[in-house]
Amino acid sequence: MGAFKIAKTVLKSAFKKPATLMYPVVEREWQERTRGSIDIEADKCILCGICSKRCPADAINVDRKGGKWEIHRMQCVQCGECVEACPKNCLDMNPKYTEPGTEKVIDIVDVEVKKPAAKDDKGGSANAASGDDDKLICDQDVCIYCGLCAKNCPCDALEVDRKEKIWKVDDDACVKCGACVDKCPKKCLIIGAPGEAKAEEKTEEAPAAAEASTDDEKLICDQDDCIYCGLCAKNCPCDALEVDRKEKIWKVDDDACVKCGACVDKCPKKCLTIGVPSDTESEAGDKADEKPAAVSMKPVMDEDRCVYCNMCANECPADALEVEVDDWKLDEDKCIGCGACIDVCPADALEMTEK
C-alpha cells in the first residue's frame, strides 16, 4: 500500500509546478505590508537626526557635519518608526529584504549638506525661490516659553529661557525639519521667509483655547478618573507636575505651569483640563454619579505583527513591560492600563482588553 501512495504522489508532482521558487533566478513577489529593509532618498534628506533619535534599536547614526547617514542592517528591526518620524518623507520601508551575507553590514549614504544661499549685490539670496531663505520664526506675542520646541529639536538649535522670556534659534544649526512647529502647543512657530506676513496667518489658525487663555485658568485633574500613570509629569516641559502612583497623589505647581497643554494631550484617560477651577470642579462633581464603573484593562500582543522593537516597554510609565528577542512579557500587577504602549507601537501589534 505504501508503494501505491508514493507512486500517486510522484505522478501528481510530475504534472505540477514546483512548490519552491528558483531563487535567486526567479525573484519572489513580496506582500505590500512586508517589512523588508529601510531605503533612503539622499537628495531629500536634511540630516536632522530625528530618525536616529526615534530608532528603538539604535540602528541609525546621523553625522550632520560629515554628511553621512548610516544604518546597521543587523540591528534594524524594521519597525518603521523612522519612516513615520521623518519630516521630509525621505525614508521608505522596502518590502524586499537585504541580501544575505557572512558579515555584519553598515550601509553608509553620502548626503549633500546644503550650504546657505549666496547673497547677491542687493543683499538678497540668489536662491530665494528655492526656499533656502526660509527660517524658523516665532511669534513671541503668542509664545508662552514652554520649551517644548527646544526639547524636541534634534539639532539643539533652540534656546528658551522661561524666566527671562527669551527665545533664540541658531540659524546655522537649524535644519528646518519642522519638529518644533509640530510640537508647539500655541502654534506660534512657522518656517518661512523673514518679513513675510505668514506669522499673522498662522496665528489666526491657532486653537481658540490659546487665544482665550487667562490668568485665572489652571490645570485641573479629575482624580476620580486619574490612574496616576505619570505620563503627564513625564511630558511636562516645566517639571510642574508630581505624581505618586503608590500614594495616589497628583500635584501641580501653578507657578511653574505655563498651561501649554502637553500633559492634556498625553493623558490617556482625558482627566486633565485647563480652565477656571470653580466652574470645572462643579461640573465634575455633578457628573460624578453618571460615570460608569472603571474597568481594568491590559494590553495584549499579536505575535504575528510584533517586531519586538521595545518601544512599548520604553514608553510604559509603570515599567510593566519587558521585551527581548522574540519574547514579550507583561507584569499584570504593575500594568495600570493606561494604553501608552498602544499609541507608540509601530506595528499595531497591541490592543487593550479587560483583565
UniProtKB/TrEMBL annotation:
TM regions (residue ranges): none
MF (Gene Ontology): 4 iron, 4 sulfur cluster binding; metal ion binding
UniProt xrefs under InterPro entries: 4Fe4S_Fe-S-bd, 4Fe4S_Fe_S_CS, Fe-S_Ferredoxin
Keywords, comma-separated and alphabetical: 4Fe-4S, Iron, Iron-sulfur, Metal-binding
A Pfam short name: Fer4_21
Domain of life: Bacteria
Domain (4Fe-4S ferredoxin-type) ranges: 36-65, 67-96, 134-163, 165-194, 217-246, 248-277, 297-324, 326-355
Protein's recorded name: 4Fe-4S binding protein
